[in-house]
Each structure stands twice: as structure tokens, then as C-alpha cells.
Hints:
By secondary structure, the protein is an alpha+beta fold. It has a domain at 29-102 and 178-209. 44% of the residues lie in helices and 21% in strands. A three-stranded antiparallel sheet has the order 1-2-5, covered by helices on one side. Strands 3-4 form a two-stranded antiparallel ribbon. Helix 1 (29-69) runs antiparallel to helix 8. Mean pLDDT is 85; it is low at 1-10.
Amino acid sequence: xxxxxxxxxxxxxxxxxxxxxxxxxxxxxxxxxxxxxxxxxxxxxxxxxxxxxxxxxxxxxxxxxxxxxxxxxxxxxxxxxxxxxxxxxxxxxxxxxxxxxxxxxxxxxxxxxxxxxxxxxxxxxxxxxxxxxxxxxxxxxxxxxxxxxxxxxxxxxxxxxxxxxxxxxxxxxxxxxxxxxxxxxxxxxxxxxxxxxxxxxxxxxxxxxxx
Length: 211
């Protein structure tokens, strides 16, 4: 019995690759170009690392300044410019957060405010290998028209049947958008820095320069 997934296409299977033909290089010109290209790539990687280090320094200092200068405010400015001799960096403190899998430290830091600003969302995935083929197409077509109903209708199972047991739930913590502004009134600069360490806000840097 075959199962179709509508617009969803299965990833093509990878085939073992045979050695590729070599471009003729009678003068050695292309060999030198390969060398230059690899050296240029290495230089670009080093420049990227240096840029990332600059951005990390900007981010840490902007966060510290923001928490100090905005303490007690309800709608602080969260974009700052850093001026240089050949341009400027625009550093923005985004209303988006990276959360660790273990949110216990965040709850501890937010204390009584955790219930207001943190909520739980859920992602449901289906392990199709655990579902009998006779029921799989139905499950795929309906993308889950209640798992227990599928067990009862297709398999005659009551309660937690195989389709229900094939579904797993991943819990995801979501940060309330209001937290981004409210944090400056609710927490001290030191507390906000501690929160930033365990639940960092995304900080973006854009460069405006002339060469």
C-alpha cells in the first residue's frame, strides 16, 4: 500500500558519487587560481571571525548601557549608533529571545513575574513508522483529525491506540512581547544583565560605511 503526502515531497535518496572529471590545465593557470581562491576563502573566514568578535563586543556593551540608561522607563529607545572614522554601526536590541531547553534559571530570575511573561507552546510531531499502513494515509490526509478519533475509526482501538501513541509533543516556552519594554521597570540593571545571560535578546548590528 502506497502513501501520498500531497504537496509534501520525499527527499531524494543520495547516490554514491563517482569521481568527477578533471578540467585540463596544461599551463597550470587553474591550479594557481585554486590556490588563490583557497587563500581568499581563508582570509574571508578570518575577517568574518574578526567581524563576529566586534559584533559580540558591541552587543555586550549596548546591553549593559541599555539596562543602565533605561532603568525605570516604560518605552526606552533600543537602537544605538556607534560612530567610527569611516562610518557607523547601528546596534538594535530586538524583541526576540533565545531560550535554553531548561527554563528553570529563567523562572528563578523572573520570580513572581514569570507566570505573566512566559507561556508554554507545543509542537506536535508524528512518527509514521509506528502507524499501521492501513491508517497512515488517513492520518497524513487529515494531519491529525484528533488522534483518538483516528484510532477508533480506522483501527477500532479505544483510548490510547497506536496512532495516539505515535504522536509526541514538544513543549516550547514563549516570551510575552510586553516583557521587552516592561523589564526596565520591573528589574534592576544588574538583574536585567543576569536575565540577558540566560535568556539573551537577539541583538543585530548593521554597518554603514565608506571605503
